[in-house]
Amino acid sequence: MVDHATTVNNPSVAAFAVLLLAGALLLVRVPRSLALPIKAALNLAILGAIAWIWLAYWRYALVAPPGFDGAMNLNTARSFATGHGYGFVYNMFFPFPAQTDGPFVLPAALLYRLLGATPLAAQGVNFGYFVGMTILAFVLIRRVAGSVTLGLLGALLVLQTPGMAEFAMNGFGEIPTFFWFLAGLIVLGEALDSPGTGRMRLFSGGAALALCYLTKTVALLMVAPTALIFAALLLSPLRNGRGRIEPLAWFAAGLVLPVAGWELFRLIELGPSEYAEWWRLQLGQIFRQSGASDTLNERISPLAKGAKHFLILSGLLEMPPSALLALLLAPWLSAAALMAASWRRREVGHLFGLAACVAVAVLYFVWWLFITPTDMAWLRRIINGLLIQQVLLAISVAAAVRLLLLAAPGRPGGRAAAAAAALVVLLIPELFVVHRARAFTEPPALTPQSADEMALARTIRQLPQDATLFGFGWWQNPTIAFFSGRTMMNWNHWTPAAINRLPSKYLVLDSSAKIFAGADAKRDILDSTEHTLIADGPGGSLYRIDKALPYPAFTDADRASGKLAAAFAPSDGPYIGRRGFYEPESTLDWSRPESALLLRRTGQTRLALALYIPPNTVPDTPGKSLALRVTSPNCLDATVPLDTPGAHRIDLPLGCPPVSTPEPMEIDFAFNGHIRFTRQIDADSRLLGFALTEARLVGP
């Protein structure tokens, strides 16, 4: 629910409203002697507002760590800067992690070499792209609007985009991507308007779009329609027969060569076979995360999904659905009218900028509303669409203001009335946008959680050099790894025996792991270790591991439980007598390297097992054969070869006599293999051994 009173009283909204009222003075017929001072004062006021926002972001850059995903990008920069390769180490080396790429990572690597593991080294590139984006937004809007004042006001509108404070300064790639997109629009727009071919301008414009794509793969949504529109206009009759094929070749060279160069770098770094495997994994990730691979199989229709996501976006932006609809449609409709006017006037550069922005914005919102997975319908994934909407809105407002300025005094006419109505439709939704952005009232600031995370990184930096530090699963402590300079291992990749052989070992849970996976860490790790808590706070926890156990021992209460049975199957539901297994998955119960079952036995004489070995299971020791050892104290000790993948049924005789009174029987499993790890950072990293489908005491 949007609190409209809060929206109206928000100081950011009030400041925005004051600027609008000041801008309205431009529409008033005032003496020429007053017009210039009024305009100069307004320009200074807008510049002051922009500078105030820049200053807040600069102060943040001096003290704050990056976000979780951003820290992964910065660990890649650190690794490259220190000569360890383009990637990062989390138990194993992950080359070219598909988050944010070269145009962000390479400057960050240079800053790391110059400044070390400091907040400014982590945030400097973010701040540079943030300021650069503001300047390019001003240049583009001023060029189309034909007014410095309206260009400045448009740049300020771009800074009011919801999500800016969350995503501009946390090591993410959305703002750098938008920077290169704006650079491409400006350079290519000027190339279309220039009388000559401007070879380097064409090449540079194509290169800017290439860098946009190389920053984040999702930027294909921006680059592809922009390149097609540019090529179509370059070859169109609007350019009065000027050379077409050669300029297109220069543009194509700028677009292709940086991408080809980066792929060559990737190929050299990885080698041919790993290069092909890397792309196979990344294409799977792209199709899955974009929703493209799941859309046709979803039970919900695209329209129903669009309606659901529309309401999600309405909540994220804190605006009523009607205002959101106006925010989307009004800039597109006004831009369409401006494109028609540019076509008539043969203003090819203006036509290109408008058409590219509309095409990209529409494509972004169609993807986010109708295709993207619901569990990934995040504000971050649509922020570039919102940024382009802000640019279109600023250009549309500038056009409406120009129409009103050209109207004859006292005789507004139909066009002027339409322009005034358009201003109302455009600016009222913008008040909600400004309220959500809270650019003046809630700039990015160091939180107690982030400060504590930095303190924990300093504590970890002081640990003995021979200490082995563990994260677990996806929660790899990237911020702590960056600022402590320590490499993290993945607990899930290690057996208890291997952990216990280490002289000094610690478990690190950063703030993200504590918030989102703290219960998993307790169940899967802490309950199976002897440990000491060294440090604890909102930024994370540090445990010294004294001993790792395969699984918690069965208690007397477990053995006396009346819920024990002579048979267990995962499909039967929760069962008290299981240890060393992961959470059941339908009919399968994946085992760790060591696991145990507690069954209730009376007169049975055999143990029947049904299990599954996946085809990509490998032995823990290369060259050894896969085998499962099944033991029960004084009753069973058998080693079963499992060289072939697939389903297996095993029947083992028990070596102890039947009993007349039911008693608990502990059965221990030790498997010497696991499913091969996929070198993909968000792949399943658990030590998955065999999958149990049934265990049953039978006989006589």
Can you characterise this structure?
With about 700 residues, this protein is of the alpha+beta class. About 55% of the residues lie in helices and about 15% in strands. It is built from 23 helices and 18 strands. The mean pLDDT is about 85.
What average pLDDT do the residues reach? 87
Report the principal-axis shape.
elongated
Number of strands: 18
Instruction: Give the N-to-C terminal Cα separation.
Output: 67 Å
Helix content: 40-55%
Give the low-pLDDT segments: none
Proportion of strand residues: 15-25%
Largest β sheet strand count, sense and barrel closure:
9 strands, antiparallel
Query: Radius of gyration, Cα only, in angstroms?
Result: 31 Å
H/I helix tally: 23
Give the structural class: alpha+beta
Topology record:
Blueprint: H1 4-9, H2 11-24, H3 32-63, H4 68-81, E1 87-90, E2 92-95, H5 102-115, H6 119-145, H7 148-159, H8 164-167, H9 174-193, H10 199-215, H11 220-234, H12 245-270, H13 272-290, H14 302-317, H15 321-345, H16 348-370, H17 383-406, H18 413-437, H19 448-461, E3 468-471, H20 478-484, E4 488-490, H21 496-500, E5 505-510, H22 511-524, E6 529-537, E7 540-548, H23 556-560, E8 567-568, E9 578-581, E10 589-601, E11 606-613, E12 617-619, E13 627-632, E14 636-641, E15 646-653, E16 663-671, E17 673-675, E18 691-698
Parallel strand pairs: 3-4, 3-5
Antiparallel strand pairs: 1-2, 5-7, 6-7, 8-18, 9-10, 10-16, 10-18, 11-15, 11-18, 12-17, 13-14, 13-16
